[in-house]
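Hi team,

Filling in the usual template for the complex we talked about on Friday. All components are listed, including any nucleic acid strands or ligand strings, so the model treats them as one assembly.

SUBMITTER: L.P.
PURPOSE: interface mapping
COMPONENTS: two
RESIDUES: 456
SEQUENCES:
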Amino acid sequence: MLKLRVMPTLLYKENTLVKGVRFASDRRCGSALQALKVYNRREVDELVFLDIAATGAGRPPDFTLIDELADECFMPMTVGGGVSKPAHIGQLLAVGADKVAVNSAALSDPDLIVEGARLYGKQCIVASIDVRHEDGDWRVYSHSGSRATAYDAVSWAREAERLGAGEILLTSIDRDGTRTGYDVEITRRVTAAVSIPVIASGGAGEFSHMAEVLRDGGASAVSAASIYHFTQKTPLEAKTYLQAEGFNVRL
Amino acid sequence: MPRVALVDYELCNLDSIRRALEICGAIPYVCKNGDALRDADMIVLPGVGAFGTAMKNLTASGLASSLKEQAARGVPLLGICLGMQLLAATSEEGGQNDGLALIGGDVVVLDGALTGERVPHMGWNSIDVQADDEPLFRSLPPSPNFYFVHSYHFRVADPRDVIGTTTYCGAFASVVRHGNICGTQFHPEKSQRVGFQLLENFLKQ
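RESULT (copied from the run log):
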């Protein structure tokens, strides 16, 4: 039976890992390589690594950095940030990413998903979708939450699936870093609208939040950052909790 | 230590499988053409990417014919993920394409509609062992979990070639063997302890 995945997320900016609240006021939280080695030792299910400064700075992914990280990484790793053309996807896969997350560039150029899926297979294209709850709707934002787009979350998720994305990383900007729980409602709406796996992201503060979004939101995986960076909690403890609650996880 | 040829058909990263093989006690070397394959004690055919492009590259570089030659000579061969699917006679991924035809059967899409499951099949899932005394499974825990990421699966013609199955969208062949030729639909190099154990087992054959 397929296991529900528990995934730490590493956010990278200006040579260090950071973690903020609602996509702002980032706190520095250590070296990417060190964190990756720890998660490797702990045999986490999967890792998400996002360079959150790349798109804003108008630069491509840092392939040398990913190459160095991938050499230490014996777990599946999704890499994102600054991916704006199909060649970037190819280069990231070539240096050791297992999957590549696309976000801002795919919103303005949907062919990025189409070409990426055609060349490398849809299973390695992750549509990363950042949403804000506004006026009863969930608006998709690009450029690390700084620009509103014309899309609502459900229609962009559907469109991303149609274009060829193999997975969705759905992040609630409102909940990000707050540790007040995932946005279960939008997760539920998106998982109901698509038939590809959805990773819930943004807001995990307690293991019960993970249980909630897996059970009521229909997520296939839960990603989290603050809970691991700023508390003593670990992904293994999360999975032990989830198993006791009756969820099917890998221990 | 066995010299292991890592078949490079320029679609995917070979670093993690190369490093995994080194840690498991092999001397891997990257192999881009048919001639280089002849020095190998063992062969690993990795794989990420699209079936049609993979076969086109394998054929153009002379690797396809050399792979068949070495396989016929009895050199142990392990196909991983797309590498396992390439062992099949045909695949329907991106139109009908011929494979290496080293194990009978065809590659077809995973149908999530039947069971309401999400495709791609992505994440950790367990193997039900279908063979007694299979060397690849030595020292593994019962129903070990491996990391999968795929949208197609190998529908193997002869059930005796299926040595491990996994339940998803029904049940599919997740580990195959026909003599010296074997394959895993999952990624042992990304499957941590159990994955490394399986690679060690392959190397010790």
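MY TAKE: The mean pLDDT of chain B is 94. The two ends of chain B are 12 Å apart (CA to CA).

Thanks, L.
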